[in-house]
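agent> fetching stored inputs for the EPZ docking request
agent> found them:
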Amino acid sequence: MRNFVATGEKPTDGSEVICNDCENGQKLYISGGNKLNGEIELQGAKNSVLPIIAATVLMKSQVVLKGCPKLSDSFGACRILTHLGAKCAREGDTIIIDASGISVDEIPASLMKKMRSSIIFLGAVLGRLGTCRVSMPGGCEIGERPIDMHVHALEAMGVDIKTQNGIMVCDAPSGVTGAQVTLYFPSVGATENIILAAVLADGTTEIKGAAKEPEIVDLANFLIAAGAKISGAGSDKIVIHGVQTLHEVEYRVMPDRIAAATYLAAAAATRGSIVLRNASFGDLGLICDVFKQTGCKLYAYDNIVAINAESKNLAAPDEIRTGPFPAFPTDAQPIMLAYSVTLPGTTVFYETVFENRFMHVPELRKLGADVKLFDNKTAVVTGKKRMSGAALDSPDLRGGAALVIGALAADGNSTVSNLQHIDRGYENFAENLRKLGGNVYRK
Ligand code: EPZ
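agent> prediction call returned; pasting tokens
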């Protein structure tokens, strides 16, 4: 067994530096106008590695996860793991986990708040220990983020849940049992929590109305590789037959499709041409369709995706409506909106998933963007030929990335602050943009 260091200690690979940096109030300094050109390696998927790290709570053998991006969210997930009694260490993009020693069933508010989607640990801790106490996760910048579907499903699986002073006290006195569960909305997190609670449960669980995102498929593939019995992942009906135990596994996390969309949009907004290695064209779905609709050329072969946006005749798409997969992903809405600001014509964005996901609009207006908001669910973008640099504040994770795209396309100098949002989901963001010819520095 490799030597482990508790991830709570200061890691030697710099992953904690990201957190310290944002505590120092660092900013991105961007000089816009450069066409992005070149090639980078795409990070592993944040929204896949987080539920997979939570899934290791179910395992008493060693797990080796490859392709794990160095993000404050993945660092936060490992902090929760070590708090619960696991050991984990990072070696480059690989995290090695030994969860055999897990015995703690409580996740304190300090750790729950540090990683927005920490509720994903609830199902796994219940599946492993039969009890769990977590503070209510609460909302975030983009919405209230309720967990009613998580709670109702776990109650159907024999879990008694009481909330006292903001703490959810969850107890499955006779262990978690399989159940038939129907979701009224294909919630990604609820689907993942139910799968994690069901893997070691007594009996069979059937999820109807399940989320179909590629990250759900990646989580299921990881668990199946460790011996779980799961079928239907990627469809709206998933069946999990409980097993006694899971075995050792080594697994590579899927590429990050939203990070891919971000770099492709940065290239398109600057009329450049880039190549992404370790990218999965199949996961990008409607995202690439929209780039093509605007006149970009897209190429895909093996695990490479490339875009050429040098055409002089690019034009705005008519409308983009977000929704659960396979619809256009809500996470790519701010990113595509920042690109559409540079295109001649008008695009209507309908945000149907989160209630407050246009906070990047007032910031993009500082660059000169022409965007009108209606009831905070609809944005009408009229493309502008030129924008000019400004001082910008990241409102949230994907909104922050959208501001960087806008600043890269604008003339002159911009700054982007509140980098703690961006650090949650983008590894080496400034370095990657510099590799592509962007004039972007963090200090
Ligand atoms: C996941 O969040 C992602 N996060 C989000 O990515 C992503 O935007 C979202 O799925 C939708 O694709 C991770 O995977 C870590 P949901 P999640 O449950 O699971 C409502 C990013 O930028 N809802 O599918 O929290 C909820 O309020 C982040 O990387 C309930 O009403 O999303 C929202 O309106 C942002 N009750 C909608 O469903 C519930 O019990 C979708 O939420 C659960 C959800």
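agent> quick read of the result: The pocket of EPZ is lined by residues 46-47, 50, 117, 143, 145-150, 185, 187-190, 211, 330-331, 353-354, 397-398, 425 (CB under 6 Å).
agent> awaiting further instructions
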